[in-house]
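Handout, page 2. Input:
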Amino acid sequence: MNRWLQLVIFLYLSSIVCANLLVKYLGAYGLWFSSFFLIPFDFVTRCLLHEKWNGLKLILRLFAITSIACGLTYALNVDAKLIAFASISGFTSAQLVAGIFYQFSKKKSWFFKVNMSDLVAIIADSIVFQIVAFGHEDWTVTSGQVAIKFTGGLLWYYILFKKFKLQNKL
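Output:
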């Protein structure tokens, strides 16, 4: 495994843990920060992993990384267990819908397949996370999160795919 791939996996896992703990410690403020910087980073880097891994290997590895991140969240703060469970639920649903969309879009441009698969992932994650973490879904919060996460995703797309061209380094 090359060092770029190792770095992407480490950062992917770390950003999930940081996002979970920010939400636990800062509540809604942490949710907004993580929604712009951390969660979109995960969704954009997931697309890099889609290019490296396929099929069942992709599903199992992404689920394993997400599970490890949620386990680390719990280990670092046992009071964050509901956030960790909501996180794994949201990420799993997001990875499934985004993975299906991405696979059907694999021959499309980088911009389309990355950002449109992220959009479906963002919607799934935002709805599922809220229901599990807070017991209900608030459409005002969901629409705000979708807009913020998608905007953050466009920023990370530019940084990772245009500035650093990571898709060529893995």
